[in-house]
Amino acid sequence: MKDSLKKLIIESLKDDLEVSELLDLVEVQQSTTKHIKADYFSNIAMKLAKKLNKDPIDIADKIVAKLQSSEGLICEVAQPGYINFLIEESQKNHIIIDILDSEDLLTICKTKKPKKINVEFISANPTGPLHVGHGRGAIYGNIIAKFLQIQGHNVVKEYYVNDFGNQIKKLLESIFLCINDNQYKSDDLYQGDYIKTIATDVEKKFGKNFNKDTKKIKKYVLEKIMRLIQIPLKGLNIVFDNWFYETSLFENNLVINIINKLNESNQTVESEGAIMLKADEPRVLIKSNGEYTYFATDLAYHVQKMKNFDTVINIWGADHHGYTPRIKAGLKILGYDVKNLDIHLIQFANLYRRGKKISMSTRKGDFVELETLRKEIGNDAMNFFYLTKNKDQHLDFDLDVAVKENKNNPVYYIQYAHARIEKILNKIDGLNNYKFNPNALNHQNEKDIISQLNNFNEICKNSIIKLQPHIMANYLHKLAQDFHSYYANVKFLTEKIDYNKIYLVKAVQKVLKCGLDLLNIKAPKEM
RNA sequence: GCGCACGUAGCUCAGUUGGAUAGAGCACGAGCCUUCUAAGCUUGGGGUCGGGGGUUCGAAUCCUCCCGUGCGCGCCA
Description:
- With 527 residues, this protein is an alpha/beta fold.
- Helices cover 49% and strands 14% of the residues.
- α5 (95-101) packs across α20, α17 (410-426) crosses α20 (499-518) and α18 (444-465) packs parallel to α20 (499-518).
- The two termini are 36 Å apart.
């Protein structure tokens, strides 16, 4: 609808030599102001006025004069130069048939150039179970991968397992101490209850005095931890295609290869026994004790991804933002186009319980497990809660409210709309014998809903293509709201059923279902 | 101190490339079930969009300064 109006305007301006170069300024927007009687409007006259040094009203009048002949379209000029469009009801109402006939409501999102895309998310260190601090990134990353798949891309969901380096050493040390010294306490080591559980198992299998450095022990413990990590993921239906182990980089000599290449690039310097890369600023690759830094292995990891994929997406907590320039600088030196590396920074979600902020430290064992939260409030509420907010927004999550609202959560509002429609449709034989009359729906509630339905494609573009799930979440809420209002005002199952209304709610249900599916939220048939 | 974000109703958050009179949920006040599910509807109060300045026909949105909050500034990962 919007695009066709845009085309009309461009068409009307094309002959004018003065503006023919300015046609990309043309835009049409949906009218949202209640007191203005218009479906869409354009501000092109005001934009051109400046460039041409003319009165915007005159320009608008000219455009409107040319557009007047279009069928089913009423154009008006308003101060200080808006062009308002009113579309005939029957034309707008046709969206109902479009939706019901459509085999896939999301075809508009399909890309013409499918790419191989790697989406890496969560990637929490394998030193403990996932806690609530990982929830936002988990749900966001999963949905981003899904949106890309819907666009038609070939997506690999990946979890990077940091099974190399100090943290793992400390984990093993913690377990060792837990077995041999019940009273151990150290700010530097891990102390959660899960350590005790694993320690018990380790002791059973390996005895008290095992050698912490053997591969066997490490593998055993790592498997235990990875199993813990997968519990909430299974619960949330988050499935990874690939678990990339940091140690595999060494087994394949990938790190040393990268270091060699960097050395050849003349972008490395030696300083106090360490090798540094001239990245955004000098960054250590090899410590003076000969160990690789996280940066060095991470570069090798990213090179792997850049080689094998057209686009590489990292979903990172916002606390990693300072690391971005470094990794990009490194990849640039290695000859990769960092335009293909897309880093999504997710702001922290603070968690409160009884008005107090909950600290989330795996090491101190002071955290609420993601699985605990999931069980308390349920998948649907959890998905909706995280997906309804912009990733750039810091947000506060009050556990008490979340649990209290379990029965009263906004997500149920949307699901309830879906279930209510289902109940109506169940009592109808079907629509095959009734032809939809596009002129029949004139109730204000009906107009509101139809306007929302006409919006759906635009919402899909903004949400799915631009990877902004919260736009879809908020749209669904608005659509549900319009429906509930309608439902309260209108009786469907009367003696003489108006099947046009049934067409309408059926289309609404189809859109709700589509949207809820998108966000990994169930669309129940009854509640 | 430097860097990256954020600041919208009492609370939690929307606000689509700058558009016309600022939005929702929760909370609070008042109504609505003899009727398709009241997990619902209707209605009221509640705002200097952190503050100043600037750009523009037009700013919550862009620029700048200030204030506030979060995060980051390791030979940690």
